[in-house]
């Protein structure tokens, strides 16, 4: 077996959900070893956390700049090869830029940056250093999402003409209605989150799902946001009309105040021969619809699925796979890319996906601010 890839972690300490998700996912396929980290801005807390999860403390650094400086002093065969950035949004750009400029590969949480301009700067940096960059749109790692992509590519539903995707959560309800509380949450702070909360956090996942599954590019959007309170600067709910072509249209709906919703990402794609439906909370079921045939349900692990879907399936049919497995599939694809192995272009979202995501976020904000008008994406 190939030697494990040396992984560094930035952020994600303590009880961070995203930290647990990335650490577990990196271990699932035995491709990575965590060798260095800055888990927390507080060095003592970072050390304590490393001990808690049984990682050697000799390469737990006091801050990000020290990590880069000290790792570059090590022989190439010992230093960190790829870093996962799990910090709040405003730190993504400076960290990713320095890592790319110094030849490190990067796995980054979304959104990649806080502005589209920063995203284009990172794209240029990656092209210059020829490094691997992955943006963790986790849901692209689900076997049945990959099956949906391959079926559409193969023409199973014919020409796509309608897309409906929603991502509904309710978690911010307990915060947004309390003026004091909402001033303490970083996702509602433009200095830390950027220009958007809802669209940058979950709407961009829905946007990515449309382009990942259909293989089409969204060309223009019209957005309508809800901020709920005049003193709240960040969107917490929004509806976005999308145009992919003159006869291919759809809607992206995202909300952080959908009362009672947990992680309600769902996508439906309709073509002239059939339709496909998938829900994140029931990820092992892909509905295949037709005007002339009974409803079909595709499930993971069966021989009728595509090679890409089966590659992302670790268990026999009937054994549920979930979000840890989906993120692990992204890490597996990145490992293949770092090792120079052959891989399917659907195995992990790339720099292009990250840049397009930032273009989408900024365009939705612009559309809403201008009075809900159509805005062209690059």
TrEMBL record:
GO molecular function (one): nucleotide binding
Residues annotated as domain Gfo/Idh/MocA-like oxidoreductase N-terminal: 6-136
Alphabetized Pfam families for the sequence: GFO_IDH_MocA, GFO_IDH_MocA_C3
Record-linked SUPFAM superfamilies: Glyceraldehyde-3-phosphate dehydrogenase-like, C-terminal domain (SSF55347), NAD(P)-binding Rossmann-fold domains (SSF51735)
InterPro entries: Gfo/Idh/MocA-like_OxRdtase_N, Gfo/Idh/MocA_oxidoreduct, GFO_IDH_MocA-like_dom, NAD(P)-bd_dom_sf
Ranges where the GFO/IDH/MocA-like oxidoreductase domain occurs: 145-277
Name of the protein this chain belongs to: Oxidoreductase
Organism the protein comes from: Arenibacter certesii
Highest classification ranks of the organism: Bacteria, Pseudomonadati, Bacteroidota, Flavobacteriia, Flavobacteriales
């Amino acid at each position: 077996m190939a030697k494990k890839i040396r992984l560094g972690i930035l952020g994600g300490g303590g009880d961070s959900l995203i930290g647990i998700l990335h650490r577990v996912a990196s271990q699932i396929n035995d491709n990575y070893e965590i060798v260095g980290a800055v888990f927390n801005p507080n060095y003592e807390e970072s050390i304590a956390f490393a001990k808690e999860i049984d990682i050697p403390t000799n390469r737990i650094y006091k801050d990000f700049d020290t990590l880069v400086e000290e790792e570059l002093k090590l022989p190439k065969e010992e230093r960190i090869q790829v870093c996962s950035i799990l910090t709040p949004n405003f730190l993504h750009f400076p960290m990713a830029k320095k890592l790319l400029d110094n030849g490190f590969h990067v796995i980054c949480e979304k959104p990649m940056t806080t502005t589209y301009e920063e995203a284009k700067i990172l794209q240029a940096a990656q092209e210059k250093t020829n490094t691997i960059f992955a943006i963790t749109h986790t849901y692209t790692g689900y076997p049945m999402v990959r099956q949906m992509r391959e079926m559409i590519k193969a023409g199973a539903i014919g020409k796509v003409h309608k897309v409906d995707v929603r991502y509904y959560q309710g978690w911010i309800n307990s915060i947004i209605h309390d003026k004091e509380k909402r001033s303490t949450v970083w996702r509602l702070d433009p200095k830390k989150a950027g220009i958007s909360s809802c669209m940058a956090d979950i709407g961009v996942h829905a946007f990515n799902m449309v382009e990942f599954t259909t293989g089409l590019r969204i060309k223009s959007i019209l957005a309508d946001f809800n901020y709920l309170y005049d003193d709240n600067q960040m969107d917490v709910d929004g509806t976005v009309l999308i145009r992919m072509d003159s006869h291919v249209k759809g809607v992206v709906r995202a909300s952080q105040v959908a009362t009672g919703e947990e992680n309600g990402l769902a996508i439906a794609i309709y073509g002239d021969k059939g339709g496909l439906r998938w829900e994140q909370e029931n990820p092992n079921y892909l509905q295949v619809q037709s005007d002339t045939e009974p409803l079909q349900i595709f499930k993971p692990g069966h021989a009728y699925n595509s090679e890409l879907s089966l590659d992302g399936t670790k268990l026999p049919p009937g054994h549920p796979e979930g979000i840890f497995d989906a993120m692990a599939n992204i890490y597996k694809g990145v490992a293949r890319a770092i090792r120079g192995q052959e891989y399917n272009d659907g195995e992990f979202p790339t720099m292009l996906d990250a840049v397009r995501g930032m273009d989408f976020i900024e365009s939705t904000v612009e559309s809403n601010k201008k009075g809900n008008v159509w805005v062209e994406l690059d």
